[in-house]
Amino acid sequence: MGRDEELRMTYSGLLMKDGEKMVRVSFERGKKAYAEGIIPRGVIEKSSGFSKEEIEMLTIYLQDNATDIINRAKGVNFLNEWIGRKE
After folding, report:
1. If we measure between CA atoms, which residue out of 31, 24, 23, 41 comes closest to residue 6?
2. Could you tell me the pTM of the whole model?
3. What range does the domain containing 43 cover?
4. How far apart are alpha carbons 32 and 37 in whole angstroms?
């Protein structure tokens, strides 16, 4: 698998929407393929460049790993990340 084919996942910090805690998760492969999902619902909301089967696999990944991703997202501090400071 070449560097352009590697799958990269990023996630937001913990967000609040309509009184519910959530995390936005993005998957990227190369320069053209992306998928954006949300947990704890564990759904991919939009995507491009991934097959239907790959989207199903990403959905399962989000659902199976929601608790771990949420716990990691709790450690994201937007202000510190923005100014490049480590805690």
Report:
1. 31
2. 0.81
3. 3-83
4. 17
What is the structure's pLDDT at 54? 96
Question: 69 falls in which pLDDT band (50, 70, 90)?
Answer: very high
Q: Are 38 and 22 in contact (CB under 8 A)?
A: yes
How many CB atoms within 10 Å of residue 73? 19
Hey, what are 20's tokens?
A: 């519910």
**3-state DSSP helix/strand/coil % of the chain, to nearest 5:** 35, 35, 30
* Of 70, 83, 87, 84, the residue nearest 11 (C-alpha): 70
Instruction: Give residue for tokens 């202000």.
Output: 79
pLDDT of 38 higher than 80: yes
Domains of the chain: total = 1
Q: What is the DSSP letter of 77?
A: -
